[in-house]
Design brief:
- The protein is α+β, with helices and mostly antiparallel strands.
- The protein has one domain.
- The chain is built from 4 helices and 7 strands; from the N terminus they run βββααββββαα.
- Strands 1-2-3-7-6-5-4 form a 7-stranded antiparallel sheet.
- A hairpin with a 4-residue loop joins β5 and β6.
- α3 packs across α4.
- The radius of gyration is 15 Å and the shape is globular.
- It binds zinc ion (2 copies).
- One zinc ion binds next to loops.
């Protein structure tokens, strides 16, 4: 598979001990396969996500899905101000640009500090990925 953004060959990588992802050695983005996301721990559905208020669909992009080559759609995950591309046509997975996951992890660490509670940012991020996946699957 090739990177949708820069066309480099994607390399398999085990991400934060959770799932296998295809990462780009050149632009450092990564492809998250929906089948892989199924392996993440189960989550209880947040009502907000059910209603879709946290996820906004933006527009078509010119970036091809690395699996089927169809143009991906862009959506915004408002809670973390994240913009992601996903395969709207065949639901193969979604694309995360370099550093976006780190930004989310940082926000989660910050939030954990604010509420004076020890929260594992990595498992919180895993849950977020799973939530987005469940939401997109319903489309
Ligand atoms: Zn790339
Ligand atoms: Zn696809």
């Amino acid at each position: 598979m090739n990177c949708p953004k820069c066309n480099a060959d994607l390399v398999k990588k085990y991400y934060k001990g959770m799932i296998e992802v295809d990462s780009c050695p050149s632009c450092r983005g990564m492809w998250l396969d929906f089948n892989e996301l199924d392996k993440l721990e189960d989550v209880t559905f947040d009502d907000d996500i059910h209603k879709g208020s946290l996820v906004h669909f933006q527009s078509k992009t010119r970036y091809p899905c690395p699996q089927c080559g169809m143009g991906m759609d862009e959506f915004q995950y408002r809670l973390y101000d994240l913009k992601l591309d996903f395969c709207a046509e065949n639901h193969h997975g979604f694309w995360l640009d370099a550093g976006e996951d780190d930004r989310v992890m940082e926000l989660m660490r910050q939030r954990a500090k604010d509420i004076q509670r020890k929260v594992d940012a990595e498992s919180a991020w895993g849950r977020t990925l799973k939530e987005m996946h469940l939401f997109l699957k319903k489309k």
